[in-house]
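Q: Convert this sequence to structure tokens.
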Amino acid sequence: MDLLLPNKVAIVTGASRGIGKAIAETLSAEGMKVVLVARSKAELESLATSFSNECLVQAVDLREPDSANRVVASTIEKFGKLDLLVNNAGATKRGDFLTLTDDEWMDGFALKFYAAMRLSRAAWTHLIESKGSIINIIGIGGRTGSAEFTIGGTVNAALMNLTKALADRGVKDGVRVNAINPGSIATERLQIRIQNYAKTNNISLEEATKRMPRDMKIERFGKPAEIAHAVTFLASPQAAYIQGAILDVDGGATRTL
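A:
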């Protein structure tokens, strides 16, 4: 299937590792020019050297209120247009609700929710011009509450609502807005959870890697590339009639409506 993406321009946040890196690599392989956004300049520059297509490195802290405007302005200055915004940045702290601090709650919203909101706002007029789209990478914790994931679940639920609200506006403005909820994807963050699981259950990491999916009632952990492939399809004109969708890519972990 021809996804019709060559020479289009995408911003990908959280692009230095994990899911974001896989998304950036896949979009570039499809012929897109990619703006790589994260805090780690060295990791972004290393990734950029692997691309055959033109790209732009933006090492910024998206928790800073003016960072979104700077990223979009640099994109337009470099490429003259913007076709796709992938809001992927943001990790939230797990832990006991009673011990999580106000600063930890504010940090969770600052990087994941407010960064996505500000980037969407800064990019909107340019996406109107290109008839482009926004894809929010959120997480299944926003659908199903969990005692140890109160910050992340709350932030994710807010982002799902923002996705629906912007999709509603996008019908009028010609901007498609969709979201993907990854489940347990084999990234560095998941390795920390596996280590904690192994320690709690007094088992090896190898055994923990086998048992955790069974406890979740899924066959296996997902791969970053599987999220990237979903992003690539949603970004393409082949998905032109998909608006306001929230796609769970989680191996069947989410069983609620």
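The longest strand covers residues 176-182.
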